[in-house]
Specification:
- Chains A, B: It comes from Paenisporosarcina quisquiliarum.
- Two copies of one chain form a homodimer.
- Chain A has 413 residues and is α/β, with parallel strands linked by helices.
- Chain A folds into three domains: 2-171, MoaB/Mog-like domain (Molybdenum Cofactor Biosythetic Enzyme, Chain A), CATH 3.40.980; 177-254, Alpha-Beta Plaits (2-Layer Sandwich); 259-411, Alpha-Beta Complex (Maf protein), CATH 3.90.950.
- Chain A is built from 15 helices and 17 strands.
- The first copy, chain A, has helices at 10-13, 20-31, 46-59, 77-85, 93-106, 153-171, 190-196, 198-203, 229-247, 259-269, 284-290, 308-313, 319-325, 330-344, 391-411, and strands at 2-8, 35-42, 62-66, 89-91, 119-121, 125-127, 136-140, 145-149, 177-186, 208-214, 217-226, 251-254, 274-278, 299-305, 348-354, 368-374, 380-386.
- Chain A has a six-stranded mixed β-sheet, with helices on both faces. A five-stranded mixed β-sheet of chain A has the order 14-13-15-16-17. Chain A has a four-stranded antiparallel β-sheet with strand order 10-11-9-12.
- In chain A, α2 runs parallel beside α6, α3 (46-59) packs across α4 (77-85) and α10 (259-269) runs parallel beside α15 (391-411).
- The longest helix of chain A is centred in the C-terminal third of the chain and has 21 residues, at 391-411.
- Chain A is globular and about 80 Å long.
- The two termini of chain A are 50 Å apart.
- β14 (299-305) of chain A pairs antiparallel with β14 of chain B.
């Protein structure tokens, strides 16, 4: 089966946003064994969209659309498809109810054009949108399959994963089971990880092993295709074991885990509480932890001490330490972690202080960061980082490294 | 002049990388007033690439290619184009010298296939590659213009900016000026905003007005095409005035502004300091502010009080308030803001407390949030939000709303 992905939106052609949807959908289709031969982007123009559909029909069996399902008059994807394939748009009552409920919840009047979002292709299977208003659609007319998805990635990605993919997998009527399992690594570069498993990468056929790097993390996706789920998991486990014998030191989690969720799970499992004192990261460490539901079992709170004075006055770091060693130092980080642990009466205290950049800070070059962690037995662990001069990359990297150190400390206990 | 952008590379169709080149080239072409009607992605397959070229020639004057100029046998962009338009590939001595110099510099032998990178379309203008080996090309045969660029963004972007764009601008021989100006809105939905300016959207020709929504924000891009910069700005200002007379209440900034940067600028301009006490957002408000360079002039710090106990013990909120009103209340938010303002001795105190979700919290449904802001004159402003049950969307929305309220308060002073 061959597919073409058509993204609809003039903002893509104006270069205002990047077509990340095509990458996401392509990688999902690759997992289902569907070949993608073309991506197309077309603007909010009905005639040009129609031509793109006609062309796609001439060279693909499956056409996946993203964008153009919203309430405004620019949004014309489903209208154009309906006219082109000769079918009607009908009101989907479930979608309409959910749109009305949305406006009630946010206590704003629903303008008339919002109703248009609940119109769907007659005879389609409706794909629920749990993160927005416009529903998606799965439609087959015997010659082609059309999947219509909303444009915003945070609506499109879960809809594809949870709604469209299972329907498509059934439709492909595979008799085959495809299972993927993702291993997540931190603290090792993609090139280095690849070098260590090169022979396995080169010999792979089933399961396949796909490395992917982003934001300082590397993942390996193991995918097995077999006739039964049990057999697939057997193959995956064998490959996982082999991989972890090489690079297991850097593993921090699986599938949808994040560094924050792995940290939170370990803390909760061990019944430990945590507090943080943050300078350059200004709350980012705590905020990333708080993104994980249930974290109130372990995160008590903390302080943001952005200025030297607030480190002294609100956190109680001794002025002598700051005068002698500066705010970007192991000594200051240790004092901050120790003070916040005492203030919030937690088992673990964490501190981050440094020069976020782009300018140097307190005589330290941009990218210099000190992390201190004080464990329940009062053991102190400090780490110095030398990052770039990019402020927000540094702040995020410092937070990720802190999670990584915590995972290592908590896993070894 | 109309353009089509063709990115060549099977890794794009497999979803391994995102086509950021199309966005970059589109935004650059928009600046030159070139309309982009299609993006196409095609794999490393000569026949499918040839079909894509033929199609692009039927609907565009300018075709911009990225990718497929490297040394390996997969790289076949220029070979396919040469065959298709009936021209030869010839060795470019300057490019060859620079490739040889590159290998000398890294002290490695140059393999024979690297020479292939110095082959260019006969009669083209060569575009130098200052960040890699493969040169780009600008070629016109009277019917179409073909621009060939390398795939890696760090080679492609400077080559387009410094080499291709000036050549293209001269070729277009414009005498025309195109200026864009972006207005940024918050607190109004895209559909509602469009409804309020529908007549202007429908009547638009020059300047054009393009709405775009993302993450609860809406932007309007005004673009004018005229013979002089002065005239373009005149047209833009007239349109802006008209737009703001309708929806000016929701304007928070221009162009690259963000809610956080607009807040930070206003605070710094007015010489005011700020501290925050955060519960559900757990540092996200402070962290978003700290993403802006120079914010240490206004952000002193704050506390994260994730638990009820920490609100009492570390922040000093009275236990009575929490017992009587609960932690998700105007009273608790006000006490938090007041306490953090006093603790950190700042001009402004901000507090966020609520039920992030997905579960209810302290008898309040998920998505209930209270925001309190205490101004320099001790005026207290509180707001209640009713958001969704999506934890992290709620946390981000609560922070954005807080910035929005601060901008309104600071702009009115």
């Amino acid at each position: 089966m061959n597919a073409e992905i058509i993204a609809v939106g003039s903002e893509l052609l104006l270069g205002q946003i990047t077509n990340t949807n095509a990458r996401y959908i392509s990688s999902q289709l690759a997992e289902l064994g569907v070949n993608v031969y073309y991506h197309t982007v077309v603007g909010d123009n009905s005639e040009r969209l129609r031509q793109a559909i006609e062309l796609a029909e001439s060279r693909a069996d499956l056409i996946v659309f993203s964008g153009g399902l919203g309430p405004t008059k620019d949004d014309l994807t489903k209208e154009t498809i309906a006219r082109h394939i000769g079918t009607e748009l009908v009101m989907d009552e479930t979608a309409l109810t959910s749109i009305e409920a949305f406006f009630q919840r946010i206590n704003r009047p629903m303008t008339e054009n919002n109703k248009k979002q609940a119109l769907v292709l007659d005879g389609c299977q409706v794909l629920a949108n749990h993160h927005g208003m416009a529903p998606g659609m799965f439609y087959s007319n015997g010659k082609h399959v059309y999947i219509l998805l909303p444009g915003p990635p945070k609506e499109m990605e879960p809809m594809f994963q949870l709604e469209a993919k299972p329907v498509l997998a059934r439709w492909l009527n595979q008799g085959e089971v495809i299972i993927s399992h993702v291993l997540r690594f931190y603290g090792i570069g993609e090139a280095e990880l690849e070098t260590q498993i090169m022979d396995l990468l080169e010999a792979q056929s089933n399961p396949t092993i796909a490395p992917l790097a982003s934001d300082g993390e590397v993942t390996l996706r193991i995918t097995a295709k077999t006739s039964s789920e049990e057999e697939a998991w057997g193959l995956i486990q064998q490959t996982e074991k082999e991989l972890l014998s090489r690079v297991g030191n850097y593993l921090y989690g699986y599938n949808d885990d994040s560094l924050a969720s792995s940290t939170s799970s370990l803390l909760i499992d061990k019944g430990l509480t945590i507090a943080a004192a943050e300078s350059l990261t200004a709350g980012l460490f705590q905020s990333e932890l708080a993104a994980i539901p249930g974290v109130s079992q372990t995160l008590v709170g903390g302080v943001v001490t952005y200025t030297a004075e607030s480190k002294i006055n609100q956190l109680g770091v001794s002025k002598d330490i700051i005068d002698q060693y500066g705010v970007v130092s192991a000594e200051c980080a240790t004092a901050m972690a120790s003070r916040v642990k005492a203030m919030f009466k937690t088992d673990i205290g964490v501190a981050l202080t440094g020069a976020a950049g782009p300018e140097p800070h307190d005589n330290q070059p941009a990218g210099t960061v000190w992390i201190a962690i004080i464990m329940p037995n009062d053991d102190v662990v400090t780490h110095e980082l030398h990052l770039s001069d990019m402020r927000n990359t540094n702040r995020l990297r410092a937070v990720k490294r802190t999670f990584h150190y915590l995972i290592q400390l908590l896993s070894n206990n």
